[in-house]
Amino acid sequence: MFVFPGPDGSSFSAAVTAQGPGRFIHVSGQLAPGSDLAEQATGCFDRIQAILAQAGASLRDVVSIRAYLTSLDSYADYARVRRERFGDALPASAAVQVAGLLEGALVEVEAIAFVPAG
To answer: Given this model, what pLDDT does residue 9 score?
Structure first.
């Protein structure tokens, strides 16, 4: 994989390339309980990490994530959690404000991972 860094201080990459033999894992949008957006985002990433582990992958294999937030007022909290969870392996990322989510959630996160063969 090759990563094109995002702007200085960002918690995402501008682009991530994945090529060669391997497999993609598409993780459906995940919701998690919590009293605020940061707690829910942490839970979403916990669930994504657990699903990837079952498929033989990790968060370091994630090339792209998309987050749906009911308000952008707490976007900085989401971005902080994303940076904490991905460290220096920042995926390409998009965040979209939506009118509502299932179960009254504040955030839903989906992911795409690429696991090289071998």
So the answer is: 86
CATH of the domain at 64: 3.30.1330.40
Nearest by Cα to 110 from 73, 56, 67: 67
Residue 4 lies in a domain: no
* Helix (H) and strand (E) counts in the chain: 2, 6
Kindly report the pTM of this predicted structure. 0.93
Integer angstrom CA distances of residue 116 from 8, 26, 44, 95, 96: 28, 15, 24, 27, 29
Which parts of the chain register pLDDT below 70?
none
Please, what sign has the CA dihedral across residues 15, 114, 56, 30?
Answer: positive
